[in-house]
Design brief:
Layout lengths: L1 H6 L3 E4 L9 H28 L6 H30 L3 E3 H34 L4 H4 L2 H27 L8 E2 L6 H7 L5 H35 L3 H30 L8 H24 L2 H16 L1
Parallel strand pairs: 1-3
Antiparallel strand pairs: 1-2
Helix pairs in contact: 2-3, 2-10, 2-11, 3-4, 3-10, 4-6, 4-8, 4-9, 6-8, 9-10
Length: 311
């Protein structure tokens, strides 16, 4: 009977953003431009890191993976949203919805783990500079990235399997622009207690603990900088850490705003707007943050442009 109930809903209808019909064209152009900037900007980061040997370091190794994750993360939801806005078609198949949930959760968790690895890299570089090359070896960097991918995939698979066992009968209207897990649970006619407990448990493991590790790392970095006052060292530390802290603030700030201060049951507009922040705006801003606040990236980009001009 559970399987029969599951198949009773073959598709969902995404209600999209709280935008008036006459404004659809303007917002379509705006979001398309933001999506293209996010993709091209992060591709530029990947290209610069690949072409400049000076950036073949642990920090930029993690940054390249973060840029790739941001490209795919924004691509999970934005193209479908843009297509729905342009065609006025709101439907998404059951299989497509479940797949979207999986990739959204997996890439969101991966972002969290990569930001934590980057914070640890900065901690070792500033607090233990003499041991940096030994500690942040190539094997450790690969291990951190592999573990991040494995843990993110495992948590997303378990979320998706628990979601797939639920029944959806009758109402198939999703007041969102993508298949959000929390919104789907509200729509289900099954008991979602296990799903909610799992969300709470995994949320602590993939969001709260990494965020705490980042705070501890930067607390130690701040204490080290204050103990050894050096204008040149302080400028270098702020150059590499400032960009990372800005990205951390954007990423975790939107998540805290969405999940720790949820909207009322009567209105999902705030949830939808905040979701735009971390699915589209944050990936778009990351390349600007790392390019404008990071001296190494600006120098590498200038060198590549100079070589291209002279050639």
């Amino acid at each position: 009977m559970g399987r029969e109930n599951q198949s009773s809903v073959s598709e969902f209808l995404l209600l999209g953003l709280p935008i008036r019909p006459e404004q659809q064209g303007v917002f379509f152009a705006l979001f398309l431009g933001m999506y293209l900037i996010a993709v091209l900007g992060n591709l530029l980061i990947l290209l610069v890191i690949r072409l400049d040997p000076h950036l073949h370091t642990p920090m930029y190794f993690f940054l390249s993976h973060l840029a790739f994750t941001d490209i795919t993360f924004s691509s999970v939801t934005t193209p479908k949203m843009l297509m729905n806005m342009q065609t006025q078609s709101q439907s998404i198949s059951y299989a497509g919805c479940i797949s979207q949930v999986y990739f959204f959760l997996m890439l969101g968790c991966l972002d969290s783990f990569l930001l934590t690895s980057m914070a640890y890299d900065r901690y070792v570089a500033i607090c233990h500079p003499l041991h940096y090359i030994t500690v942040m070896s190539q094997s450790l960097c690969f291990l951190l990235v592999i573990v991040s991918w494995v843990l993110s995939s495992a948590s997303a698979i378990l979320h998706t399997l628990l979601l797939a066992r639920l029944s959806f009968c009758g109402d198939n209207l999703l007041p969102h622009f993508f298949c959000d897990l929390a919104t789907l649970l509200k729509l289900s006619t099954s008991d979602t207690t296990v799903n909610e407990l799992f969300i709470l448990t995994v949320g602590v493991a993939v969001i709260t603990l990494p965020f705490a590790c980042i705070l501890v790392s930067y607390g130690c970095i701040g204490a080290t900088i204050l103990r050894v006052p050096s204008t040149k060292g302080l400028y270098k530390a702020l150059s590499t850490c400032g960009s990372h802290l800005s990205v951390v603030a954007l990423y975790y700030g939107t998540i805290i705003g969405l999940y720790f201060f949820p909207s009322s049951n009567n209105s999902n507009d705030k949830d939808v707007i905040v979701a735009i922040l971390y699915t589209l705006i944050t990936p778009m801003l990351n390349p600007f943050i790392y390019s404008l606040r990071n001296q190494d990236m600006k120098g590498a980009l200038g060198n590549i442009l100079s070589r291209g001009t002279f050639s």
